[in-house]
Amino acid sequence: MTITKLATCKSCGAKIVFLKTTSGKFIPVNYESVLENKIASYEIFNSKKHTSHFATCPNASKHRKHGVSPK
Fold first, then answer.
1. Alpha-carbon distance 13 to 66, whole Å?
2. DSSP at 29
3. According to DSSP H, which parts of 1-62 are helical?
4. Rounded Cα distance, 40 and 3, in Å
5. CB 42 within 8 A of CB 16
6. What is the pTM of this model?
7. CB atoms within 10 A of CB 62
8. What is the chain's pLDDT, residue by residue, as a tens digit (71 residues)?
């Protein structure tokens, strides 16, 4: 398994991975959900398999674009 965008959340320090959405944009995903599902670097974000870091980060609201509300 190769993960090309492993990172650390600048707000809470959690390990995250960036996966592409179906629209081609990248979304931060909790690294633990990557390990559980053995995600390859080419996999597309799937809300049934992956946990968006926006859902678990205590500081997620600081990173949201203005005018965009969470679903």
1. 23
2. E
3. 31-37
4. 6
5. no
6. 0.72
7. 9
8. 444 568 999 999 999 998 888 898 888 999 988 776 665 555 788 888 889 999 999 988 887 665 555 55
Amino acid at 28: P
Backbone φ and ψ of 18, nearest 5°: -95, 120
DSSP secondary structure string for all residues of 3-20: -S-EEE-TTT--EEEEEE
Is-contact 22 39, C-beta < 8 A?
no
Helices (H) and strands (E) in the chain, counts: 1, 3
Please state the domain extents for the chain.
6-58
Amino acid occupying residue 53: H
